[in-house]
Design a protein that fits this description.
The complex is a heterodimer of chains A (304) and B (354).
Chain A lengths: L8 H36 L18 H7 L2 H33 L5 H8 L1 H4 L2 H12 L6 H7 L18 H24 L3 H10 L3 H29 L3 H6 L11 H11 L3 H33 L1
Helix pairs in contact in A: 1-13, 3-8, 3-10, 3-12, 6-8, 8-10, 10-13, 12-13
Chain B lengths: L3 E8 L8 E8 L4 E5 L6 H9 L6 E6 L2 E2 L10 E4 L11 H11 L4 H15 L14 H13 L5 E5 L7 H18 L2 E6 L2 H7 L2 E6 L2 E6 L1 H6 L4 H6 L6 E8 L4 E3 L5 E3 L11 E6 L5 E2 L5 E10 L4 E7 L2 E7 L10 E5 L6 E3 L8
Parallel strand pairs in B: 3-8, 3-9, 6-7, 7-8
Antiparallel strand pairs in B: 1-2, 1-4, 4-5, 9-10, 11-12, 11-14, 12-13, 14-20, 15-19, 16-17, 16-19, 17-18
Helix pairs in contact in B: 2-3, 2-4, 3-4
Classes of the chains: A mainly alpha (304), B alpha+beta (354).
């Protein structure tokens, strides 16, 4: 057997390059739009970038991270971020699930109700924040007076200015705004459950609660897992309501990591330090996402 | 085990035409009843009303002598096998089969015992730890049956349980259901649109059409003496042939088109000249005999053990079933004869005459 004659070098090069040339336009756009800003942003974390200081821009190595390790406000923000995210997501999930279950049972005007449920989602977050800030303001809003009448508040004061309660303000607004997301996704999942399963369970003797426990919940579990994962990352990064309602105050009691980044970047105009915090937040969320994905994989494997 | 009595039951969804009208049916203890009819005839609705999944608009349903109209499904002590099997996808086979027992807080030892007995009966021992999605269609079907069996209910309800299986498996499961019933002796109601299933499984068939019971009887009753045109056409495959004609009282014969005459040996009390429909099953049609009617051959369908001839007789579609392989070679026309004792006669309303 004679070996196949080697083809000329240029022809082989052309064959190799062909797929890359075809994908080049898309790759270039992706690199320009996604990778370049990311790399530039990350590079800020290691440089001294202050908007008002024309002599800044030099390389400072890990200085920002060293400063961060000793930053008390950052540690407070980390703890706040944890409570803000956990409480917001859990309460949204709970109310969203209840709402989805209600909307899944037929009643007159269900079509309109389903459309109305989506409404908060359509309100700009800036408006939502202003609205709730006013609702919590005792001079124009009714909420403090109602809470006082219910005995939940000692006096009709603004909880947004109470260091111990302030975080509940943005949480309430975020819950109101985010319920539709859970309600709609869970409703879609509910409607995909075959009705004859419920009929079989009814004949088998299961009461409504047992039917919910052994049919509805197992069916919803994967959807709940993925929406909670998404929402957690989303809410952790979500600052609009905090900035609008409290600006992180009083005394940094509502400052989350994300709002701290905003404060550092746009109030103190220290982009370098803000980028360093962003990088930490990015790694925290990546670690969280990885954890959830591993958990999910284990659940799926167990299900096989 | 119990009797089931259905008295003057009707079903209507607010404002619409009734789905079921005035259903009366008494099912004996241990009987295997098949409700058969085309889709939309109300057979599934009737079954779901017995199960308690649909409200009863009028009339009463009694299981074992107790009126169950207002009882929830779980209080009726019945088991149902669904067309889709409706297995709980997150539970193993064993969990699926014992769900009802565990809900009733049955002692663990009893549950295990019943599970073992049922799974052995159905050949499911090897699959108890699997989830439904890891099973074949036939195995899922068995699990659905097993879930019903472990409960030892008063009655079994089957809602087209074999429709999702392929033809061979369906045949096999049909025989198994029959054997299972012989062994358990439980009252069973089985809904199907497949008349072969109805014929092979039933002690008695209930033929339904348009929300009304057309005929109740043993499979051979319905085959030999269909009460009306609907039952005649629905039972049997290929379906019965029908020819329109007029009664000639003087000649004691049916006068068909083109002046051909079919003599009838029975005495019929009908005024001369009244409309009459003659029915004859393809398997009873004679071919090539003396004095027959000429029919054009349109299509020849070999089925292996026989041949179905699609004919056109007096401008009517007409089928004949034969095992004579001479008819495999296409011919332009054949003569058909219809034995007088095999004729079914129906009056102008479509009801059987004598």
């Amino acid at each position: 057997m004679t070996p196949a004659p080697r083809r000329p070098f240029l022809q082989r090069l052309g064959d190799r390059a062909e797929p890359w040339l075809y994908s080049a336009p898309a790759l270039i756009v992706i690199a320009a739009v996604m990778l370049v800003p990311l790399v530039v942003g990350i590079s800020y974390a290691f440089r001294d970038v202050q908007i008002l200081n024309p002599f800044s821009g030099g390389f400072v190595g890990l200085d920002h991270f060293r400063a961060l390790a000793g930053d008390k406000a950052f540690r407070v923000a980390l703890v706040n971020t944890f409570w803000w995210t956990v409480l917001t997501v859990l309460i949204q999930l709970l109310f969203g699930l209840v709402l989805a279950l209600l909307l899944d049972t037929p009643f007159r005007g269900r079509g309109i109700a389903q459309a109305l449920v989506f409404l908060p989602w359509a309100v700009p977050t800036f408006l939502t924040g202003l609205n709730w800030a006013w609702l919590f303001n005792p001079t124009i809003g009714p909420l403090p007076h109602w809470l006082h009448a219910l005995g939940l508040l000692a006096e009709p004061s603004n909880i947004l200015s109470d260091p111990n309660l302030a975080l509940w303000g943005p949480i309430t607004a975020a819950v109101w705004w985010g319920i539709p997301f859970f309600a709609i996704t869970l409703l879609a999942a509910l409607q995909s459950i075959p009705s004859d399963l419920y009929e079989a369970a009814a004949i088998d003797g299961a009461n409504p609660f047992q039917r919910f426990w052994s049919i509805t919940l197992p069916f919803l579990a994967p959807v709940i897992a993925i929406t909670v994962l998404l929402r957690t990352v989303w809410v952790a990064n979500f600052t609009d309501l905090i900035i609008v309602m409290t600006g992180g105050g009083p005394a940094d009691r509502t400052q989350t990591v994300a709002s701290y980044i905003f404060t550092q970047a746009f109030k103190r105009l220290d982009f370098g330090y803000a980028s360093a915090i962003s990088l930490v937040l990015l790694f925290l969320l990546l670690a969280y996402a990885l954890l959830i994905l591993l958990l999910r994989q284990r659940l799926i494997d167990r299900d096989k | 085990m119990a009797t089931i009595d259905i008295r003057a039951v009707s079903k209507a969804y607010g404002g619409h035409a009734p789905v079921l009208t005035d259903i009366d049916l008494s099912i004996r203890d241990g009987e295997f009843i098949v409700l058969v009819g085309p889709s939309g005839c109300g057979k599934s609705t009737l079954l779901r009303m017995i199960a308690g999944l649909e409200a009863i608009s009028a009339g009463t349903i009694a299981i074992g002598g107790r009126v169950v109209n207002d009882l929830a499904p779980k209080a009726r002590d019945i088991a149902m096998v669904f067309q889709s099997y409706a297995l709980y996808p997150h539970m193993t086979v064993a969990e699926n089969m014992t769900y009802s027992l565990r809900l009733k807080k049955t002692p663990k030892a009893t549950v295990a015992e019943k599970l073992e007995a049922a799974s052995r009966k159905l050949g499911l021992d090897a699959f108890l730890a699997r989830k439904p999605k890891a099973l074949s269609g036939g195995q899922r079907q068995r699990v659905a049956m097993g879930r019903a069996i472990v409960r030892a209910p008063k009655a079994f309800l089957f809602d087209e349980p074999l429709s999702n299986l392929d033809a061979r498996l369906r045949e096999q499961m049909r025989a198994e259901i029959r054997k299972l019933h012989a062994g358990l002796g439980a009252t069973s109601i089985y809904v199907t649109h497949d008349q072969v299933e109805a014929m092979t499984l039933a002690d008695r068939i209930v033929a339904m059409h348009g929300g009304i019971i057309q005929q109740v009887g043993s499979p051979l009753d319905l085959y030999d003496r269909p009460a009306n045109l609907f039952v005649a056409g629905f039972i049997g495959s290929p379906g019965m042939n029908f020819l329109p004609g007029r009664w000639d009282a003087g000649a004691r014969a049916v006068r068909l088109k083109a002046d051909s005459v079919l003599p009838v040996e029975r005495a019929i009390d009908l005024p001369d000249g009244s409309a009459i429909t003659v029915g004859v099953r393809p398997e009873h049609v004679g071919l090539g005999g003396e004095g027959g009617l000429a029919a054009a051959v349109e299509l020849v369908e070999p089925t292996g053990h026989g041949i179905i001839l699609h004919l056109r007789l007096q401008d009517q579609p007409f089928k004949a079933l034969t095992t004579d392989r001479r008819y495999l070679t296409p011919q332009e026309s054949v003569t058909v004869t219809m034995p007088a004792d095999r004729l079914h006669l129906f009056d102008g309303n479509g009801d059987r005459i004598a």
